[in-house]
Amino acid sequence: MSNSENSSILFEQPLNERIRTFMRIENLSARCNYCLDQDDSWGSHLSLSALIELMSLISRGDLKQEILKELSRQLSTLDGFAKNEVIDQNKLQGIVDNHQQLISEVSAINGQLLAGTKENEFIKAFSQRASIPGGTCDFDLPGYHFWLAQDTSSRRQALREWLAPLSLIERSISTCLNLIRTCTSPEICTAEQGFYQRSLDLGLPYQILRVAVTKELGCFPEISAGKHRFSIRFMTQNELKFNPKQFQLNVKFQLTCCTF
Question: What's the whole-model pTM score?
């Protein structure tokens, strides 16, 4: 994940399967919405392709329950801050109210997520062909090719209707991830000869590791994490035709062990 605000690049590592799924949905949703705003037919094609990936990912588990569990877990933690005088209680109450509202809305979802979109015959035809390399050519899907030739506003309106059921899911996941990412302060660390390792406190609910490294260093982190510890190996790849190698110099980087 790039950090456009400065000269560093931000990398994230989820520490459990729930957060891993949330981050994948976040990434696909961002891609889908970005391509949706493009005026040409390729933008519509890429937006629909991202929607198909989202549908596949969401259908693999009970995402509704996972969202409810995470919102409830966070709400329980927030309730513990109610008597902490250091915390802005008005701001805290706003976050609590938002979590309670999301829990109420998500609980009210009936049936499978995106059930209506999945049953759309146009989307089903595209999905079946999209799994084949080059399978969405005009001779494979003439109806789809005809749709891509329509005006931008018509294509965009259709995509927005298909994406509408995802709005609540996107808001819920964004709320959960934002709270996790922003409740821990970063620290400056040094990887000796490109390697860094640390043990994790099992008494704390670590969710995400965030590593920010300066672009000019010319290296990137490969993060390996388990329940007990994590390691970061900084790699360099001067030519893309060769495998990356471990960076041999000391690397100063910013580390955030996100816990909430």
Answer: 0.90
